[in-house]
Amino acid sequence: MSIPRQRPLVFAILAVMFAALLGPIAAAPARASTTASISGTVTVPAGVDVTKVLVTLSYSDGTTWYSPTRNPAPNGTYSFTGLPAITGNFPSPGYSLNFDGQNIVNVQKQYASGNLADGQAAIVNTTMPAGAIIQGRAIVPAGEVASNVSVQAGREFVWSTATPLAADGSYKIVGLSYAQVSVRFSSPKIPYTFYPGVPRYSSAQVLSAVPGQTSQLADVSLPLGAFISGTISPPSGTTPSGGSGGYYQITANIAGSIADFNSGASALRQAYAGPDGSYTLGPIWPGSYLLDTTGAGTTSSGANVTFARQWFNGAFTPSTATPVIVAAGQTLTGMNETLSVGGSISGLISASTAAVAASPGGATSTLNVMDSQGYVVQRGFSDWRTPGSTTASGLGAGNYRVAFNRDYITYDFYRPDISQGSSGDTQSSTSQSVDEAQFYQGLPESSGLGAATPVPVTAGQTTTLAKTQLIQGGVLTGQVMSPNGSPLPYVNVEAFTSDGSFITRGGSTDSNGRFNLTGLTTGNYILRANQNGFATGLPVLYSGNTTDPMKATTVAAAVGATKDVGTLSYAPAATPTPTPTPTPTPTPTPTPTPTAGIPGGSTPITPTRFVDTRPSGPVPGGGTVSVQVAGVHGVPADAAAVVLNLTVTQTEAAGFLTAYASGSEKPNTSNVNYGQGQTVPNLAVVPVGPDGKITIATTSFGSAQVIADVSAYYRGGTPAAAGSFAPLAPTRFLDTRNTSGPVSSGGTVSFQVGGVKGIPANASAVVVNLTVTQPNSFGFLTAYASGSTKPVSSNVNYAGGQTVPNLAVVPVGPDGTVTIANTESGAGSSAQVIADVSGYFLPGTPATSGAFGPVTPTRVLDTRTSSGPVPAGGTVSFQAAGANGVPANAAGVWVNLTVTETTSFGFLTGYASGTTKPGSSNVNYATGQTVPNMAYLPIGADGKVTIANTESARGSTAQIIADVSGYQLK
């Protein structure tokens, strides 16, 4: 007789998987009898109705799967009778028993399994301890009813029983084990929405479900989903083949970052088309998507073919695809595609001796086929020990870059420290080869994508690569320590680069808190622990033993070498015993000196990061984050306004940020407009609230991470001196969507600022956030004083269909108006223009420290016509003081920085020449983008300003343009 085994849920999943994979190969031998039985007693906590527990028996007689169920009697007993002998082979047991509270009673799930002999009466008792409870309320949009919406708690592929919302949107999920879980909502009209209101599991808030405790969650707003439909047609002369899901697979990928796309995190929803090629995909979140289709078929001669993976509209690569934009509740029809026959790339990959020795079960690598921007189009896999042929098929005709070993495999493993034989928990971890990643042919990962050899592909043909020999990469090893100084087991650790130049390598600590990260290229990495939040209550920890990513230190790795980096510790550093010092002779307390400068005068500070939500979690859609700015980090308590660079990143849906004085009503303006998955910066001048804080609000269906770097402040008091600044609550002065209509190519639009909405008639300049939207071509805006000649400069650069904001300091014309000129590329093209004013400067010749002086916007730097592109890691400087109307005693300049002709992604940082580069950014950009952003930059002792270019790929470059529009006096 086999003894029944109780196991955690993860083994139940494995059992089902293996049973499904192995299946019956041949008819089972005839059973001698059906007289066996399984019975037992279910014990639950006092007060729990045991009859609500559902006991499910799963087994197969060799040809059919059976799943009878029972509810225990009031005394907890249950039984299954008339059973045949049930046997299996490890890891698939003969039968499994699942004890489930079904989200009706608060008990943790239990699982048992075993084999059953002819005539055996097996006894399987189980104890179901009390579970954890999560409850809250969901706000359901118009067009859907609450009872249609289901809610679940769980992890990855293991979720609790779906429960409908109550009529008021409230919910209660019971019976959860001690684990890290997420909560998700869905209905036929509402896409998967994860708490606290995001579309992806990877961005969901991780919650601790503690037995015997109830977690009350904040309200979460659910979006009304959108749908996409169309018809897929096979290539001429072929017939599609039906697969497990249908004849074609259609995937909606969030139009976000390359990293998310390549990791699969951008794939939001899939659908399958039937024999006629018609499909409907949804519900999906409103937003922008890259829609791709795959399939296979046969030719008229019976040959098998793989169709090229194709993006809308007829594109073979993600970077050239036309984004598909859908709104809440919309059904977008007519998304039709006619596919093409695909080509292939094939080659042999050989691992290093160390990789083969480290993978006795078979070392596996990926062949990544990438487009010129770094998007992974297709993948192929290889068994190195053969060595095996690796083929990536379904490629459209064109040129591609090929990379090897640039993926890591995510898997789940059992947590013995918290499972204790009940429902258990699993934790995602990562593993990868010990070999370094490469680009074809033989180029190390550190060479960068731009150095990779283009590989041509022809439809219906296979391009064969030369054999690739991988080499052993570097290893970083160490230990993670908990706050009490003990080793921290089962926590994930990753090595990454802040600019994304190397693939992130990951692993997890063992029972002694030790980690081992392999396959590293030669270069500098940042380490982070607990990125997935599975170490309950602890933030992400970075190398340098800091939770502030801006203070993280880098760790050098070298190919073929192993380096012990010591410990990553949450424990505070030991405080040395202070050495007694003699009591000093008391001296009179000096009278405090008032803050230097005039009321309304500015003072620069070293650009300092005041807020970064990434360690603590994103700001939910419709949420706010407030930050103390007055009285900290060099900003005085009487500051009236601050100059800060706002950056939004990891955005779950399109939206905008609004920054304003804490305690005041949120204005109907925007500072940063962004799309789904974008990283967008913009300078802002923000009034400070009475409590010394500013508030940043998100207006979006999804969450976003927010970063704010302060570079200067304006002193409080009533501005009176020439050049002093008076902040205003951000106010919309112009919106052509509601007035004159779009501004045509070559056209202008003017608006009154002097003498209206609190601005004096004689104001010399205004601080205005310009936003361009609905452009049908590419071009740029130039803002200047009405009545003057349009300068050769730009304030906002944009492409067709983009919404782009940028701050500008604009002189005011004699008539009190400002003019905005639209320079677009296409005849008959146009763009809508929005202007939000947040302050003004008093007129007169500036003569006091901190006073502002406007200048006609002047181009002071354009590397396209001077020094040439700035390489990755390079700098370029320009003369600011004593030139172009800026006096020699200027402390800083207002400059519009524009980056263009970028060959990789990265960011620009401006700072005073001769000083240390600060840990902040002014302009963030992606490959091929043109991005502007206003900056207030201090001037060095030599009168110059330096711009540093931090790009992701070695050998990459960017062109930099700088237009100065004003200055501040020392």
Question: What distinguishing features does this structure have?
Answer:
970 residues, mainly beta, seven-stranded antiparallel sheet, globular, disordered N terminus
Decide which structural class fits the backbone: mainly beta
Poorly predicted residue ranges: 1-31, 408-431, 587-596
Percent of sequence in beta strands: over 45%
Number of helices: 4
Task: Give the helix proportion (percent range).
Answer: under 10%
Number of E-type strands:
77
What is the overall shape? Answer: globular
Using the CA coordinates, give the radius of gyration. Answer: 32 Å
Separation, N- and C-terminal Cα atoms:
90 Å
Query: What is the residue-averaged pLDDT?
Result: 83
Largest sheet: 7 strands, antiparallel
Short description:
This protein has 970 residues and is mostly beta strands.
Give a structural overview.
- With 970 residues, the chain is mostly beta strands.
- The protein is built from four helices and 77 strands.
- Strands 22, 23, 24, 26, 27, 28 and 29 form a seven-stranded antiparallel β-sheet that branches. Strands 1, 3, 4, 5, 7 and 8 form a six-stranded antiparallel β-sheet that branches. Strands 12, 13, 14, 16, 17 and 18 form a six-stranded antiparallel β-sheet that branches.
- It is globular and about 105 Å long.
- 51% of the residues are buried.
